[in-house]
Amino acid sequence: MVGAATACLLARQGLDVVVLESALPEPFSPEQPMDLRVSAISAASIKLLQKAGGWEAVLAMRSCPYRRLETWEWDGFTTRFDAAQLGLPELGHIVENRLIQLGLLAQMESLPSVRTITPTNVVALEQDQHYARLTLDDGSRLQARWVLACDGAESKTRQLAGIGVSRFEYRQHCMLINIDSDDEQQDITWQQFTPSGPRAFLPLAGRHGSLVWYDNPARIRELMALDHSSLEQAILRAFPARLGGFRVTGRGSFALVRRHANHYHAGRVVLLGDAAHTINPLAGQGVNLGFRDVACWSELLHGAGERWHELTLASRYERKRRPDNLLMQSGMDLFYAAFSNRLGPLPVLRNLGLTLADKAGPLKSLALRYALGV
Questions:
Q1: How far is C-alpha 255 from the chain's CA centre?
Q2: Which residues pair with 78 in a beta bridge?
Q3: Are strands 208-215 and 246-261 parallel, antiparallel or unpaired?
């Protein structure tokens, strides 16, 4: 998603772009089941996708707008957010990652200055003051002013550039569960904190939804081993009654890991998105931070005019983006620590904090605007 958005924006700015991709996403068909991998796309990210030219294609496939967000631990101590408070039509959309990729891919194919090479992998990297040179797995070579590493958390490009990464593994895994709902879809996403981890609901298009279950690794392995019927019974015991009737249609899981690159660039290699940082998915900010990286980099190149290839731009990019990404990472870690700790009066204090946050007026709106990037 991040790499495709970058390609579209830079091509629209008049630059020639080559996209290297190991595999293209499967084409869309309306009867396909919902993908497990979905993202909560913020209002700011939607604007970026519109600018890149890929958002209309996403809407033509399927997405689900959400206008309200609620989070709580104890009943009666809830923080609520509403798009109407900010004068927005919605807080964002829940969209399958593949559909965002496909929407941007359609735009890439319409831009003559974008060339896609697939399937391929980068096997070697060399660079000097003026150019970076890549060797692909078929032996061919490419030369470019900039190499943008948008190849995910385990970025091979980052490794070839010699950029290290700090890493912290949380004591939780995350399980994603797709459901078909008995009820008409609502415009709300919610999350309840529990002693073993949060439980969240994300609305999907139609009568569909995505459940997010955080728990210790052993418990997640147990849940993954259940058949659909047994998993449904476990969900009924663990999730709030407001979930209503449903049927499980798919599941998957992954470990929660925070990563932050020691540097966002090495010479002419620049990291964007998960290649530079991953975050606890507690607030669904991962890909939105990646799109903020994209916006920053494209604005820097556009503002530089004929000096778009100067190495100093990479340093400016890191100075702009690292503090914002670090702030969001730290904020999510604070939430994780606060709600995974049962010591003393902490449960009472954090629930009072949720109530106070709900009544914080301008501060509450400011926090929401920051999270949405508006």
A1: 15
A2: 72
A3: unpaired
Q: For the chain, how big is the Rg over CA atoms in Å?
A: 21
Q: Which residue has the tokens 């290290």?
A: 164
- Helix (H, G, I), strand (E, B), or coil: what is residue 221? helix
Specify the residue for token string 């078909």.
Answer: 180
pLDDT digits (tens, 9 = 90+) for 302-345: 999 999 999 999 999 999 999 999 998 888 877 676 666 565 55
Distances (CA, A) of 259 to 266, 290, 327, 367: 17, 13, 14, 24
For strand 17-20 and strand 38-42, is the pairing parallel, antiparallel, or unpaired? unpaired
Rounded CA separation 339/73 (Å): 9
The structure's pTM equals 0.90
CB 148 within 8 A of CB 116: no
**Lowest-confidence segment of 92-101, 249-258, 341-350 by average pLDDT:** 341-350
Q: How far is Cα 292 from Cα 290, in angstroms, rounded to an integer?
A: 5
Environment class of 131 (CB within 10 Å of its CB; exposed 0-12, middle 13-18, buried 19+): middle
Q: Identify which of 164, 191, 175, 159 has the alpha carbon closest to the alpha carbon of residue 81.
A: 191
Beta strands across the sheet bearing 147-149: 147-149, 269-271, 265-266
The dihedrals phi and psi of 14, each to the nearest 5 degrees, come to: 95, 10
Q: How many angstroms separate the CA atoms of 293 and 81, rounded?
A: 25
Say which DSSP state 33 is in. Answer: P
Residue 190 Cα distances to 66, 155, 208, 350, angstroms: 10, 32, 15, 17
Write the single-letter amino acid at 88: L
In the chain, alpha helices (H): 2-12, 43-52, 55-61, 97-110, 156-160, 217-224, 228-238, 286-304, 312-339, 346-358, 362-372
